[in-house]
Write a structure and sequence with these properties.
The protein has about 750 residues and is α+β, with helices and mostly antiparallel strands. Helix content is about 20%, strand content about 30%.
């Protein structure tokens, strides 16, 4: 609901209030963003500077108005506000002083129309449109679209004069809020994405940005502002994110008066945008959220928003398949016979989708050649994609494909025919992974990608596409934004007419994990690192902003390729349950006991798939281990994940949140098995004969026989589970008991609590 009275604007839903006003000089003054309130409370939130501070520059000496001490919705440059400005405009080489003041407003009973060249949320929502004017030369329109859980803000600047300007900066939103906060960001690198970081917001400006041409694995565009006392379940937390996939910028800074200025938008580093007469520039939409129920409360609102308003409509609340991806099992070394052998095994294990990764086209036998040439390699696939897809369907598997359409290898027919289609600057070619970027700002390049990829998708029964992008940009300069607009056009033209194709975005893992990509691809590959212990931090970091229904998570081999760490197969599966389960390893090397374990994993995941993918996700605080929970209806599933286990470990407790206090729940752990071989020489202490731990007898037993590991079942009230229920002990160094949890280092356990009728 949007209420407007005497230039007082109140955006109110069941979950938050956003209150601001146009003060007498026409500047938009922020009053409140947080818990739902009434418009009559406006005066209680107005700041009262009275005589102000002695050294301030006054906007109006008559009423002591000083913009530097005001809480504003948007600020200009050169009128006494010395904090960072969300806008910079140049006339020639001269920075232009700007003073944007209220001109008019409208309340639209719907979200803005979709003519935008940028992705926008979908679904019913009211929008407040406010026009600000600078000397009748520039018009700035601010949009506030109110969804139940979040507020979307964006800005459009139009040159309404006959003069030429250059735009140096335009943020999607600016916000001044009082209080003391910590900025929680999610930072990293390739195979180490989205690690949580905490920085107190103080006088020095905090900047989070990307200049790689993508939203980047270095600094997630989404971030949080939390009170220092906030926990997962209690306290004030604000959330901010950008519906954009290119270079981004965000900053936070606390003023002497205790106002925190937050802004976010496109990163305008290294270029200016011409703004001709009558031209306009549209900033991408930003998402603002608030919760008084801690980090989990904020995450729940962001998750609902993504699932209900961001992902393509066809895939909203539609279960995702359990897939097998050929990459880590084959790399480039495969033919149709090998793929069908893997497909047969994947189907027997319970997988539903077979994904053929890199190496199926052109001269693509390694990563030095072939990108750009999407003609099928008939030496590897003599029956083409159509024949392979039909054979996979006969095995009971849908068929999917990997592509990387934004890049080109110089060793390709495409590059030899159109070298001018590659982006190269005045300093010459510079390569990443032996490839260059195609210039998506050119219409002929966009048409080629749409045509070539479209023909591939229509040539066979293809139900899934993994769209990869492994090349950072270095030479885009002023084309950076135009490149991203070209990418959105390409994805829209390819996939909107084919909504049934499940698109998974990937960019060297999570290098483009952002809300705009989710407008086209319902899921994103979280990281090229599938080591489950590394994934604990990666998936947990992403969970603050994004739901598990969009997070690709695969079981891979151990020792792991990126860490050389050996982890139990059960832990590899348990971590992947809390995302979109898939398998990516060579299936022909499984032992019989491992095949049984994977069949059980997939069956368990399918049984609770709706809950794992679309249940409410919570992070449960536990000082001894990492704990996650998903809940839907009367079923709650918790995962407990260990790293290193100490000798003589103490008691451990299972905590679950959100259960009905007075209701009884039947709790059972997922059945897990222990490899006999993991006990090594210890086996000879319980065997009737002295066995060689490396001998043929023990190896044979290890291949086919497994021991029970810590199977538990009990009944408890919701109140008891909220407080913490004692679990069976971990291995204490004194022997084996089938009720004891004996998995050791990197162990994990999953518990299902179902309400009794």
């Amino acid at each position: 609901m949007i209420e407007v009275k005497d230039k007082l604007f109140h955006i109110k839903t069941r979950n938050y209030s956003y209150l601001f006003e146009a003060e007498p000089h026409g500047h938009l003054q922020q009053l409140h963003f947080g818990a739902p309130i009434e418009s009559m409370d406006a005066d209680a939130f107005r700041l009262k500077p009275l005589l102000g501070w002695g050294s301030n520059v006054l906007y109006d000496e008559g009423d002591m108005a000083c913009l530097d001490a005001a809480a504003l919705e948007f600020s200009g440059h050169g009128r006494g506000d010395y904090r960072e400005s969300p806008i910079e405009i140049f006339e020639g080489s001269r920075p232009l002083p700007t003073d944007f003041v209220y001109k008019s407003h409208r309340v639209l009973k719907a979200a803005p129309p979709m003519e935008s060249t940028l992705p926008l949320p979908e679904g019913e929502a009211e929008t407040l449109e406010i026009s600000l004017s600078h000397l009748d030369a520039l018009e700035l329109t601010l949009y506030y679209t109110a969804y139940e859980d979040v507020l979307c803000r964006r800005a459009v600047l139009k040159n309404i004069s006959e003069r030429e300007y250059e735009l140096g900066k335009l943020m999607s939103f600016m916000l001044d809020i009082p209080g003391k906060y910590e900025l929680v960001g999610f930072d990293g690198a390739w195979i180490a994405e989205a690690h949580k970081s905490i920085t107190p917001v103080d006088r020095a400006r905090i900047v989070r940005d990307s200049v790689t041409g993508a939203s980047s694995n270095r600094h997630q565009p989404g971030f949080l502002l939390a009170s220092p006392a906030a926990t997962e379940e209690h306290g004030t937390v604000y959330g901010f994110n950008l519906i954009y996939s290119g270079n981004h910028y965000a900053s936070a800074q606390r003023s002497h008066q205790g106002l925190n200025r937050i802004m976010q938008g496109i990163n305008f580093a290294n270029f200016k945008m011409p703004l001709a007469p009558k031209a306009e520039f549209e900033a991408p939409a930003a998402v603002l959220g608030w919760s008084g129920e801690g980090f989990n409360g904020l995450s729940a609102r962001f998750h609902r928003f993504v699932n209900e308003h961001i992902v393509p409509q066809y895939w909203r609340n539609r279960p995702r398949p359990v897939l097998y991806n050929s990459w880590e099992g084959c790399f480039f070394d495969f033919d149709q016979k090998r793929l069908l052998s893997l497909g047969k095994k994947a189907a027997q294990l319970g997988c539903e989708l077979f994904v053929l990764d890199d190496g199926w086209f052109g001269a693509r036998n390694n990563d030095c050649a072939g990108l750009g040439d999407y003609n099928v390699n008939l030496k590897k696939l003599p029956e083409g994609l159509s024949g392979l897809a039909k054979k996979m369907r006969a095995l009971g598997l849908d068929f999917g494909l990997w592509v990387e359409p934004e890049s080109v290898n110089p060793d390709s027919d495409l590059y030899r025919a159109h070298p001018d289609w590659a982006i190269v600057d005045e300093l010459g070619e510079i390569y990443g992974r032996h490839q260059l970027l195609l210039d998506l700002t050119k219409q002929e390049v966009r048409d080629y990608i749409v045509d070539s990829v479209g023909k591939v998708l229509d040539s066979a029964d293809i139900r899934y596409v993994k769209w990869d992008m492994n090349r950072h940009s270095t030479a885009l300069g002023a084309k950076a934004h135009e490149y991203i607009l070209g990418l959105y056009e390409i994805m829209g033209r390819i996939f909107r007419p084919r909504p049934h194709i499940l698109l998974e975005n990937c960019s060297s893992g999570g290098n483009r994990f952002d809300l705009a990509m989710l407008c086209f691809s319902p899921q994103i590959w979280a990281s090229d690192d599938t080591d489950p212990i590394e994934r604990l931090d990666i998936q947990q970091g992403l969970s603050y902003l994004y739901p598990q229904s969009c997070m690709g998570a695969h079981v891979s081999a151990a020792p792991h390729a990126q860490t050389l760490r050996t982890t139990p197969l059960s832990t590899r599966g348990n971590v992947s349950f809390f995302g979109l389960l898939g398998y990516e390893l060579d299936l022909k090397h499984f032992l019989p006991v491992e095949e049984t374990e994977i069949k059980n994993q997939i069956a368990f995941y399918k049984k609770y798939r709706e809950i794992f993918q679309f249940g409410r996700f919570s992070r449960i605080e536990n000082e001894d281990c990492q704990c996650w929970q998903v809940s839907k209806g009367n079923t709650h599933i918790a995962g407990i994940f260990h790293r290193m286990i100490n000798a003589a470990p103490g008691y451990e407790f299972l905590r679950m949140s959100g259960l009905e206090k007075n209701r009884r729940y039947r709790v059972a752990s997922r059945q897990q098995k222990l490899r006999v071989g993991q006990f090594g020489a210890l086996v000879k202490h319980i065997a009737p004969v002295n066995l060689d731990p490396n001998g043929v007898v023990l190896r044979t037993v290890d291949h086919r026989y497994a021991m029970d590991d810590g199977q538990e079942s009990f009944t408890a009230s919701g109140a008891a589970l909220d407080a913490g229920v004692a679990l069976s002990s971990l291995f204490t160094g004194t022997g084996y008991d089938k009720a004891m949890r004996v998995q050791g280092d990197m162990s994990s356990y999953v518990y299902v609590a179902e309400a009794e009728k």
